[in-house]
Queue: 4 jobs
Job 1
Amino acid sequence: MHSLERCSKGMASIIRIVLRVRAHTLLFSILALALLTWLSLASLALAHTLLNIYDSFFNVDRGVAVSSQGFSPLTALISRAEVEKRLAGIKNITVEFYLVTPVVINNRVFLMRSSNVSEGCVFIGDSVARELRVGSSDYISLSSVFKVEVLYAKVCGFVKGSWIEAPYSLVTRIRGVSEGYYSLAVVKGSEEALKEVYRAFNVEEKVRLFNIVVSVLPRLANESRAKLYNSLTEAYAVNLGLYRDYALYLAYAIALSALLGTPLLGLHTSKSLADVVQVYRFVGVSRRLAVAVSMLIGLIIVGFSTTLALILMHFANVFTISVLGFALAPKPQVMHLAIVAPTLLLLYTGGVARGVLSEAE
């Protein structure tokens, strides 16, 4: 008991000396690790944001999206009558149909989607409203990119997001399509009900990591070509030759490349503490205790650097991209932090421990 108490007091004493004598070295390590962690998290978060942009836009979470072959919802059309015909008889499901179109407002292009709002009214995303400097009850001009026509609508309210919601009839006029056609339909229900939805479109349910499955039909009459994808964005991106796995591999490669420098940083930290380690070895501190203290210091450094990286991610939107008024900012997920933080801790403390072992011989 006494030996354990002496050991803990010895570790605390060593840590205090190290923090006092080599504070500048530890600060450099924290800042360098924070930048590497930030780059790793940003690459993973940006890939996740890009691969799920349409899924969040249409709130597909835990649902099945039915669309047609195209490069985006702006080029895809489905018949509501055909979809409802296939889904007839399936109970405990809800179906939401969306029509999407680009719209020009004050020489800026934004995304507009159909919604259950009053005729002649539009609801504007809060970020769009700030950019256009419009308020409630104001009137805005809406121009179509498909035909020469300018329409006027009243701003009846605001929504959370970067898009505009309008009545279906207004969206059809701006996009120039006949009524009864939509960009996609989102079907939600229980797992058993969704399995019936798969069978209604003659596609087999496949094992998936997430609860998002998309049935993309090149032609609703051609049942044999129906396919399933893991996300709505992936279903459209495939037609551009962009595959989800390739984007993820690239993001993981960037993150791993950034983290591979951490063992070298750990070795640099241990070399900077070499004189402290040698002094304590001279007065009888064991190699095991020296390594344990160094790894504890490494754990503290990783904790501070990870916190600093998350703060940097929140306030420095360096990788934010604006597409049709839709802001694509990398948003790190808990899964990303669960991947990066342990890897960072293992590589950095491993480098520190290896360097201290060499110095303590």
Note: Confidence is low (pLDDT under 50) at residues 207-212.
Job 2
Amino acid sequence: MDKKLVQIIHATFRKAFLSINPALTNYTEFSKKLATHIKTKPDENEQYNFDVALDEVFNKEFSASGHFSRAFSEESGWQPIGHGRYIVIYDPFCNSTLATKTFLDAAVGASIFDERGGFVTSAIMDYQTGLMAIIEDGRTIFYQIQSGDKMIFGSITGPQILADAFIVITLESRREREHLPRVSKIFSDAKRIVINSGHIYWLRLATKMIDGYLDPVGGEPLYEMFACTIAQASGCTVTDLSGRPFDPAENLIHFEKNPQYLYYPVAATSAKLHREILQNITR
């Protein structure tokens, strides 16, 4: 992998972190200056000032690097940004709507492909803590974005059975909760359940802070899925409902044809736990 890409991601993520973190730790400032509603997008997600401001940070930095030809973001869609060798797909602030309600589980995720559609790398950063993960030479490396120091995560062996597992599931909307019986076994058997979603949970899965993450009903658009490779490269199992492993290059083809294409992920820190979760989701 081009080491310059790693430097670009580090520098861009750090700039974004420094621009938004003070507001996340001073909610008065956040609510007065940043959480201004702009519009409701077609999928009923909200768009806020900070979504657009962060999108501009990423677009400007990626454009100035000279390494990219195109970029896709949740806020802007596909944009030509230069004549480089790579394309980048990113979400500048995942969970922005929740952030305005003080649920600050917010992160940025970015994934890079070469001009032929081959997967190159992904990165995720927690906007509150500055914990960043990036795939280097096929494995996930963790950093503290402010200091640049490497961090050690994911070395412990996670639980092998659902009864010992901390599971995050995304039955957030009323429409999704209508399908609760499909995952009733997960709710009854898991040690702990959290209902939430977003890039931050791929990061937490990679660090082994959680043991499983699934979105079996509502599904996720692929621009939110590519960063799951952070979890894959740390040893986690990530598949669709049929058990087929997530393939970023293959799914880029789907995404190019249809940006609204939905993926239904089931992920766990161990293959054994993943099998049990998958077996207990009814169709």
Note: The CA atoms of residues 67 and 93 lie 22 Å apart.
Job 3
Amino acid sequence: MTSPKDFGWWIESTDEEIYGPVTRATLIQFLTEGVISPNTAVRHCSQETSAAAADQGLTSGLTGQAPLRSGDTLGKSWPKKTRDRMALAESDVECAYHKRPAILSCIRCLAPYCSKCQLKKRNTTYFMCKKCQAGLYNRRMLAYFLDGFAIILVPTWGIGIPAIFALGPERAVTIINLVNFAGLGLFMFRDPIFGSAGPGKRFFGLKVVKHEDGVSPISYGQGFVRSLAHLIPLFNLVDASSPYRDPLQRRYGDSWAKTRVLDTDAKLEKVREKVRQKLETKGIELEKTSVTTLPEFARIG
């Protein structure tokens, strides 16, 4: 049985760069050689915040005394070649999705994953694997289109087409406009009206919660504010694509309204059980260690 905390560590250098990921063994080596110090901030990929290496329990197993100083020499010591950097990151655990060494673990599916599954965006560190980040984004987009179809288009067609035949095109325009207006209003408030998840989100196992606690259903005011970005031409396209690029899965509407979109408990359990079965077929059993829960994840930022 292997601990997920044996790999997947990020180091926050005093030069304001983030280095990693690295294994726990690499961190111990850096401490022993004085590349980093006990007060260097490090964060496991399953953790919300960074803490000093000593506070993370990384100095307890050292055979010698780690240098007690501030600062680090990571800028000079960090390998230039990708192959050498990967050697510092690769663990003895196999990726859940590929036959490669795992370098990180995902807080959503809990899978150990390799560099092929890693989202790479400059110095941005993601909490989820590429599969989960993309999967959540795709389901959000599908839920959005499903809501638009069910709440706006279907009523418009269902009422508008019979009205055209019964009243004629000119007189039916008023009815069609009223139906559109009512549908747009329902669309903007769909999440609070349907219990924090509109029909599309509910179908795809998603829910919207308040950022402040990561659990409570959103208010009508928050539902209205988070929908405003959809109404701004061109900007709505930027807003729609932003969750995939954001480590916290936020679009601008979520930031404005202080909301987050998460998996339902049933969907999350289904995803994690599927990964557990994948690991079982590979003969991998990981220790259950504390990770950032999705409600905690929703409160970040």
Note: The first helix runs from residue 24 to 33.
Job 4
Amino acid sequence: MVLSSPLITKFKGWLLVEEKNKKLSIEEVRLRIEEKRLDIDNSFAKKWLPTLVTLMAGLIAGMFSYVQQQNAIQTTEQTRIEAKSRAEREWGFKVIEMYFSKHEFFDLSKNPEQAESNLRVLAAVAPVAVQSVLNAERSKIPAPTGINDLNRLDSLSAVAGVQDALKKVRQSEQIAAKSFKPPDFTIYLQYPQNSKDVAIKTQNYLINLGYNTPSIDKVNKAPSRLQVRYYRSEQRYFAEKLATKLGTVLKLSTSSDNTILLTSLKQLPSGILEVWLPQE
């Protein structure tokens, strides 16, 4: 069958239209693809991702450096505290030895000015030993007689000077003690016969405060007063606060005498306290 010329012309025209439509469709697809690519190129992620990666890398490096710095600071501080505690124990033994061998250096009744000067200096390195010496010497000062006794006033003034020096040391220790928390300590609880119920009550109270109190132990000989015994001089203020709390809960009288620093020729560890319940 042979197509007539008008039909051929019409068919060719239809083919041209179809071809043109196909080209338009392809062009539309290409345009849409290009628009999508431009949208992606201009998107937040594409535009800011390199910057964000750089910032995150710097932040992680900074955090790692900060952690390392804090660890170094804590290690240095712990070393400093241990060295201070060791030095105080050594100086404490020396002070007591000098007190008995060269008593005239600490005699507040006969040589108040010299004794005050010596004790003020030693208070910075051995406050516990100096406090013991001060207590002993203060008890030797004569009672008031109603007469203007200049020697007695000089002795009392010397006592006040040593007390001021010890107060400054305690304030420094209080600042250090603020860093301590109950979870930092394990407490060994000792109780006398017939006081197990009180011991269990005390143990539960300590556990609720956050202390690690693994056990309670009965002892044959107990102190006459509640005692909190500590191993490091920088823990004194913390021990005193604990003794006050226990005294309130157990309805026992407390004072600075309720805390005792345990000393040894060998180094004792940090993070340990002893609570001794009194004999009823």
Note: The radius of gyration is 41 Å.
